[in-house]
Amino acid sequence: MKSIILLVLVATAFATNLAAFEKLEQSKLGKTLLKTIAIQMQTGEPLERIFSTLYDLEERYQNDQREDDAENKAFQGVCDADLAGLNQEIANLEQRDTELQAKIDELQPVHDQKVGQRVAKLAEKALLQKVIDEAQAKRQEQNDDFEAQREEFTFVSGVLAEARRLFTDNLQAPAFLQKGASEAVHYTPQVFAQVATHLNAAAHKAGQMKHIRTFGKAIKLMATLASKSQQYANQELTGRIIQLIDDLQNQLNQAFDLARKTEDARRQAYEAYNTLLNRDMNKLNSAIANLEAEIQSLADQLAATHSSQDDNAARLEAKTQQRDDRRAECQQAAYEYQQRRTARDGDRQTVSDLIGHLNSNMRDLKEYIAMRVAAGDSDLSQ
């Protein structure tokens, strides 16, 4: 019974070792090592050399791992420093963007307020300009009316002067028109007829004028007197007509003097008013110019700030991309390091397992190799 149990245990142990050998062959290194051991066994090479080779290989894996660990640690340290520097630069750029936006938020309302004030001042200027234009138009109208009045007065004055000339040129007494003259005069009805015709024509024209209609009626009255004087011509009546002409000329001069004084007063009032209006206009123009200068200054500052913000945004985008690329590079390096470590750990474990089998299961290993060679396995034969 004990023999049977012992056989079962031996068979079980061999089966277990056989599974372990097959597992070794699943890796490329394990298969290579088993092939090398098989060749060395077949050539009768001492086991010490096999052990020495495996121990050297195991030590090399350990040294390579230590070197790789140190290099990875140094590389990841540089990565951490680079990423920390890039993150700080990004934080600085983000802070700069916040500061630039704050400046824009500060400048924009002031700019908009100044623009609104300028619009209001321009509207005020337009109203003031309208007042100036209306005052100027009214003044021009007044001046035109005065010039028309001057022409009408000049016309009436000329009419009266011409009527007097007709008398003085055609009456023969040299002192006829002098005050206190006592000489007899010689006259003809034709003189009165000429004066009457002249005054009638002037009275008709004067009646159509704006400012001298009253004088037109007086001229008409003198024309009637002159016409009647043809029938009752005498020195006294003629003197009255001429005196009437002189009186009317004096009234005309007085009326024109009054009109001229009125015009002067209107002109002076306009000039004073216009001076005030121009002063207000100058103040508005100065205020508008100042506002436009402030608006331009604010617009320049806003444009410069927006430009700086755009430049900062581009730098932030580039720096963020640089950080992401560097992080990906570092992550890829860490991944590759971990892959190497895993592969190296697997290879080192394969060597360690093989050394263990050589130390404890040499008989089963030789039998496994012999079985594979006998079965025609070319991987474990020369």
Largest sheet, in brief, is: none
What is the N-to-C order of secondary-structure elements (H for helix, E for strand)?
A: HHHHHHH
Q: Which quaternary structure do these chains form? A: single chain
Mean pLDDT: 80
Number of DSSP E strands: 0
Rg result = 66 Å
What share of residues is helical? over 70%
Low-confidence stretches: 4-14, 172-186
Distance between the termini: 43 Å
Strand content: under 5%
Computed structural class: mainly alpha
Q: How many distinct helices?
A: 7
Silhouette: rod-shaped
Coiled coil: 83-152, 234-308
Protein name: Trichocyst matrix protein
Signal peptide: 1-15
Keywords: Coiled coil, Signal
Question: Mind explaining what this structure looks like?
Answer:
The longest helix is centred in the C-terminal third of the chain and has 126 residues. With 382 residues, the chain is an all-alpha fold. About 7% of the residues have low confidence.
Give the arrangement of secondary structure elements.
Elements (H helix, E strand, L loop, with lengths): L1 H24 L2 H15 L4 H124 L18 H18 L6 H16 L6 H126 L1 H13 L8
Could you list some keywords that capture this structure?
single chain; 382 residues; 7 helices; coiled coil
